[in-house]
Amino acid sequence: MDKAPDSITNWADKKSGAFNRAPSKFRNFISKEAGAEFPAEKGRYHLYVSYACPWAHRTLIVRKLKGLEDVIPYTSVHWEMLEKGWRFAKPDEEVTGDNVTPDPIHKDFTYLRDIYFKVNPDYEGRFTVPTLFDVKQGKIVSNESSEIIRMFYTEFDDILPEKYKKIDLFPKDLQQEIEGVNDWTYNDINNGVYKSGFAQTQEAYEKALHPLFTALDRAEAHLAAHASPYYFGSHITEADVRLYTTIIRFDSVYVQHFKCNIRDIRSGYPALHKWMRKLYWDEPAFGETTVFKHIKKHYTKSHKQINPASITPFGPVPDILPKDDEVPAAAAALRSTNQ
Known about the structure:
By secondary structure, the chain is mainly α. The chain is built from 13 helices and six strands. It has helices at 54-65, 113-119, 145-154, 162-165, 175-190, 192-197, 202-225, 238-254, 265-268, 270-282, 284-287, 292-302, 328-338; strands spanning 45-49, 74-76, 81-82, 85-86, 131-134, 139-142. The strands form two sheets. It has a four-stranded mixed sheet, with helices on both faces. α1 (54-65) packs parallel to α3 (145-154), α5 runs parallel beside α8 (238-254) and α7 (202-225) packs across α10. The longest helix is centred in the middle third of the chain and has 24 residues, at 202-225. The chain is globular, with a radius of gyration of 20 Å. It starts with 44 loop residues before the first strand and ends with a helix. The mean pLDDT is 93.
């Protein structure tokens, strides 16, 4: 069990200094089709997440949107991720957030990696969240968030109440547009903040930073041009889920910790700021799964290469503004625009 990969902060290319995200290793799929290796059954699967992680956050949002709370239980790891990766909370620890507990399936496991090595003693990949685990077979189904959320969209519909069956986060008439948005949102925003934050040279940092803000400008322009509450109209779609988990973390950690500081969301992107707050305050699947204490402590206290002293900045205050409030600079700009 000493084959663990290097820390995430060492994933930068040795020559260019650019951050390279390794692909997920487990890419199986739950299916409602007869004879499936991983059939859609209530209580069969356990979801391991971190409240800090934007990729895992996607799965918590969709799980709640689709009414899967009684179908797929979950455990959140502790916010701390050091040399051995994500760890579970200890029995005597009091940690903010629901289900931040020791592993309820494997009582003697201390780290998420213990599950990976149980499944495959020779495993050499990353120990990541989300991890979707088949309790009955003792197998990892998937650790790829983009595919886990799509399983949740449809594969459990036969055992869900009608009101949740009807929720379609990837409607056919928007699929091509959503896929197009996903491409640049992932490359330049979701992963863009990491490419900026984990860059090991000035050149690699700036090479990632400028496309990130170009993409944020693009998302801002799209939302500003449409008078609808969500990215593609009056209904939440996958585009909202995938963008939200980065934007909600932006001011709290990415501005200072990852040096993504050309602009922040609350004072520099009024349409994105409005859209984000609508989701946070009005949609429980978004707001109730956002835990700022985990977010801020994880990044600032786990990434020792970036922040050796593990000091967590106090601000911004508040973590998120009310829907009807603005920072003074943004309020003044809005007044000027509306005159």
